[in-house]
From TrEMBL:
Catalysed reactions, as listed in the record: Thiol-dependent hydrolysis of ester, thioester, amide, peptide and isopeptide bonds formed by the C-terminal Gly of ubiquitin (a 76-residue protein attached to proteins as an intracellular targeting signal)
Top-level taxon of the source organism: Eukaryota
PROSITE patterns per UniProt: USP_1, USP_2, USP_3
Keywords: Hydrolase, Protease, Thiol protease, Ubl conjugation pathway
Gene Ontology, cellular component aspect: cytosol; nucleus
Sequence ranges of Polar residues compositional bias: 332-346
Ranges where the USP domain occurs: 75-399
Entry protein name: Ubiquitin carboxyl-terminal hydrolase
Region named Disordered: 311-361
GO terms classed as biological process: protein deubiquitination; proteolysis
Signal peptide residue numbers: none
Family stated for the protein in its record: Belongs to the peptidase C19 family.
Any one GO molecular function term: cysteine-type deubiquitinase activity
Amino acid sequence: MDSLTASKNYWAKCTGKESRHAAYHLLVQLVMASQQNLEALVEHLVTLHHTLNPDSLKEFQYAPAVDGRGSSGFVGLKNGGATCYMNSVLQHLFLIPGVAEDILAVCSDKENEDSLFYQLQMVFAHLMESQLQYYVPDKFWKCFRMDGQPVNVREQQDAFEFYTRLTEQVDDYLKSQAKEKVFAQRFGGVYSIQRICQDCPHRYEREEPFLALNLTVTKCHDLQDSLDQFVKGELLEGDNAYYCEKCNQKRTALIRTCVKTLPPVLVIQLKRFGYDWEASRALKFDDYFKFPWILDMGNYTADGLAEQEEELSSGCGSRGATPSPDPKDSESSINLSVTATSSTHSPLKARKSGITSGHTPKISARLRHKGAIYELVGVIVHSGQASAGHYYSYIKDRR
């Protein structure tokens, strides 16, 4: 037992039901086994009951507003009414190894409690260290801005839009403090926007950074089918032909977007929301959509597509099963989705440009070990309709 002197912090030593029972039974065994222990315990209890210092009793009047941290070891976030979109994203970010630690390692202005970065630190600190069942991030709600405007906690917003705004604002703050961008470092990849002339050897490329892949759901059966559509591109010909600056004339050209640089953590948004302009109403696409536990992004990178072109042009393209990747060599992956799904494999479709055949070309071991293999570690799910519903998360614990 601690001394009965006054203290400013009154925390119960045993906050859980099991620990309190264990402490009680320990005291019983101690006093049953020793007369000296019994006398010491009685002396403490007599002092406690007859003390004139009311502050000494506060430690024994500990009654938290909520229950203690659950047996799972995780701390929840209170829903402010319709802030489930925030909670699902924040819990994802917190459980990515190193993110919370890097955020908390930055010295912020504690006097400015209206700072979004400071309040994000408070959220992560409570998720990490709190002994209570959940944390109420009310100050985070107040300081977060969506397009410069405060959010109504009883109005549903899009989880992916929240992810985008939060990561941008936090990284902008870190940049202003001459610190490394935490989210861009983990989620940041680079697109390659290519213009490939068909009637001449000239190619043009423009790079563009991204923090997530945005993939369509409609008319696609699974993630690989959607990725095929993503890199398929568009053939510009006739009146819409591309002007080749090196040839000084219009050429038939393929314009496509693929991935130049893959990030350590790949975020994928499935575009399940749309808008019917004629009916003036929001839409949600509930199409069945599958995605795999292990994803090979090699086919959808600039290097992978170039290797496929080389195989086909040399006549070496051959059908054959691509060896299964070893999850132990995988980079981590997070999938920001609005419906929970699972996995399959689909061949690349034949394309008008002739860049791929009707099968999936084999990707060399060189590409397979350049961080192109991802393991699924989380899904954000939206249940309900476009205008109303609920977000929740499935997250693999890797901390």
